[in-house]
Amino acid sequence: MRLRLPLLLGALIAAAIAASPAHAANPAGCSSTKPAAGGKSKASYKKPGTVLAKGKRYAIVMNTTCGTIRIALDRKLGGPIPNSIAFLVTKHFYDGLTFHRVVAGFILQGGDPRGDGSGGPGYQVVGALPSSYHYKIGDFAMARTQNAPAGSAGSQFFVISGVQGTTLPGTYGLLGHATDSASLATIKRIAALATLACGDSQGCPPSKKVWIITARLVTVA
Fold first, then answer.
1. Which range has the worst mean pLDDT, 3-12, 73-82, 163-172, 177-186?
2. Chain-centre distance for alpha carbon 41
3. Which CATH architecture is the domain 7-21+58-220 placed in?
4. pTM score, two decimals?
């Protein structure tokens, strides 16, 4: 089963797709080079180990073929999700994965070891957000199936990349926030690769493959 935003949000997705160009240009700053880890299989896990120490702040630095994104982990609102994703990062789980779905004005989706929206790490955690939370551009939240509990999280994430994404209900677990100008510029470059070429009403792969070269956990001073 592919992890999508639930069908009740179809109107939002349709509106975002309707406003997007049928074929996007490849923006400057995106490489076509496949990373060393690209296409390699990933291990499956029963549960995440504890990797985040109490009282410390962390970020994930994700190097992609369109630039770098720095995700400040939100341990307060994310519950067990930041530690779970940090655990996968320490296992190099994200190295060589892709952004497999891009919807103009809405979201970018990635983190699937199968590359088609159906994969995961072998387990899930649940980190429900307060119902009053409003997503912002640059937020990293977790994709889930329609029937999964609110806040369910495997390895697949989505990035709020446009105004339509900020209107999503707060039922998707939160990983963290990318707010610096360099990260937002990278998100914008990936978002510019949105296309309707696949004919899928739920969004298509980007017009140019976007690889995650490496993802690394860093301590924030």
1. 3-12
2. 19
3. Beta Barrel (2.40)
4. 0.90
